[in-house]
Design a protein that fits this description.
seven-stranded mixed β-sheet, four-stranded antiparallel β-sheet
Amino acid sequence: QVQLVESGGGSVQAGGSLRLSCAASGRIFNWYIMGWFRQAPGKEREFVAAITWSGGSTDYGNAVKGRFTISRDNAKNTVYLQMNNLEPEDTAVYYCAIGAGRRPNDYAYWGQGTQVTVSS
């Protein structure tokens, strides 16, 4: 079993920055991919970024490419999402997950989510 706990959400003005953290515990294997998704009210869950647990390869959704950076600290079993130049459209609940690919259905384990609110 795997547990994921997000933190770091909050409210910020447009142009500001936030860093989200996702602490993982349990049976974590090197082939797991860690992903970040977000979901705004009335919208589908959207792929944000992903990183391989062992190799450090990354992937980003088009909406955040160039503004967000995903990284990981294996010693701490933690994945981070650095979000810069935030826009009101980034307002959503952000979730970390373990799985593969870009689709929510490809991910088996999810955190509880953390709210990010960006005001104009």
